[in-house]
């Protein structure tokens, strides 16, 4: 009889809540995708790339010009040079990059430290490789890592730790101090790090993204994953990339070439040109902060408790003064009765710990945000 390799994995909460939103005609602030148009210039660049004949396989590692532009971007922003020939790979979104990095280095019995709440693709990938996920719960409302707890969790079997900054769903960013402590721990215990940095360009209040690329020793033992979908609100294109030192990237590409081999060629050609205009990503913090501030201003009179998001396009709402329901029950009731879909955050926590918080996505048009905030204020 066939036996599932992932017996406890169920349908993604994002699919569940979006389906529920469609069924009940609810305003959908659950799944993390923008509902405003993509830049017409980027669409035109893709169309031109197709017309110019870039419709066959791209190079396995990705379009050479795109890798060069990514290398330049990282060096300019984080003062770290990654060789575009040997240390950068274009991927079918960040999720594929994350899966590939885990597949490349995790063996049967290896332990991987995860900080929960964690994006739901991490643990299944570890389990599929025969690894063991060791979860460390970040506590509301600060969601800051306890590095002493990290050290206490490490054993002789610990191979990797996965971080996510800016952090989904909390919106918290790791500080320079956090990254320096991570660097020391990774060096002391010989750990590989997987740094999920898909929201690197969505940072608020003049804070700085502390990429693993900024830190000399850390960058030499880290896979950094990024997402064009999140950056340029083209989530349906499934385009991302991974950067890592050559010794790690060689292992990454061994898996990548037999997984997807290469990814969408005309999109790569278009993104290479689009990225050369630095304003196309440097303007994003102010663009999304305006949306965050608009959303928060409109719910000032609501009963929800809020700590403003530091990054990502997500905001947590604390409903503890509104209801004693579980966050799953509360989110379901909001969708069915109030016609607004959100994400209960306990599904991402260790042992499903419930902090009475729901996550909303504010990467929406002003019209959508006005409808959503009117509903939230009525609850």
TrEMBL record:
InterPro entries: Aminotransferase_I/II_large, Kynurenine-oxoglutarate_AT, PyrdxlP-dep_Trfase, PyrdxlP-dep_Trfase_major, PyrdxlP-dep_Trfase_small. It comes from Patiriisocius hiemis. The keyword Ion transport does not apply. Residues 27-372 form the Aminotransferase class I/classII large domain. This is Methionine aminotransferase. NCBIfam families: PRK09082.1 (NF006569). Its cofactor is pyridoxal 5'-phosphate. Keywords: Aminotransferase, Pyridoxal phosphate, Transferase. GO terms for molecular function: transaminase activity. PANTHER family: FI04487P (PTHR43807:SF20). It comes from the Bacteria. Pfam families: Aminotran_1_2.
């Amino acid at each position: 009889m066939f036996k599932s390799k992932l017996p406890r994995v169920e349908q993604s909460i994002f699919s569940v809540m979006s389906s529920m939103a469609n069924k009940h005609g609810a305003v959908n602030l659950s799944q993390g995708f923008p509902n405003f148009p993509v830049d017409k210039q980027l669409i035109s660049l893709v169309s031109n790339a197709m017309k110019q004949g870039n419709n066959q396989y791209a190079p396995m590692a990705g379009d050479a010009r795109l890798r060069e532009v990514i290398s330049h971007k990282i060096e300019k922003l984080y003062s770290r040079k990654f060789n575009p020939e040997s240390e950068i790979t274009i991927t079918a979104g960040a999720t594929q990059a994350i899966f590939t990095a885990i597949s490349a280095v995790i063996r049967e019995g290896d332990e991987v430290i995860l900080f929960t709440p964690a994006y739901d693709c991490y643990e299944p990938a570890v389990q599929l490789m025969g690894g063991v996920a060791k979860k460390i719960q970040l506590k509301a409302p600060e969601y800051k890592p306890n590095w002493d707890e990290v050290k206490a969790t490490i054993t002789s079997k610990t191979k990797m730790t996965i971080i996510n900054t800016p952090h989904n769903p909390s919106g918290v960013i790791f500080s320079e101090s956090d990254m320096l402590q991570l660097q020391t721990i990774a060096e002391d215990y010989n750990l590989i790090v997987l740094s999920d940095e898909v929201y690197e360009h969505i940072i608020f209040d003049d804070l700085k993204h502390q990429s693993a690329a900024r830190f000399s020793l850390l960058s030499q033992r880290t896979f950094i994953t990024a997402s064009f979908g999140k950056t340029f609100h083209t989530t349906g294109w499934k385009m991302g990339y991974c950067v890592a030192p050559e010794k790690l990237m060689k292992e990454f590409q061994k898996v990548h070439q037999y997984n997807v081999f290469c990814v969408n060629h005309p999109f790569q050609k278009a993104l290479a040109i689009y990225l050369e205009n630095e304003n196309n990503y440097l303007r994003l913090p102010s663009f999304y902060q305006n949306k965050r501030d608009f959303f928060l201003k409109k719910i000032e009179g609501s009963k929800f408790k809020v700590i403003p998001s530091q990054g990502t396009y997500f905001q947590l709402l604390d409903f503890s003064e509104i209801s004693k329901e579980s966050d799953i029950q509360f989110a379901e009731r909001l969708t069915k009765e109030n016609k607004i879909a959100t994400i209960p955050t306990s599904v991402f926590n260790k042992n499903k710990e419930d902090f009475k918080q729901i996550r909303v996505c504010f990467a929406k048009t002003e019209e959508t945000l006005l409808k959503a905030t009117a509903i939230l204020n009525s609850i």
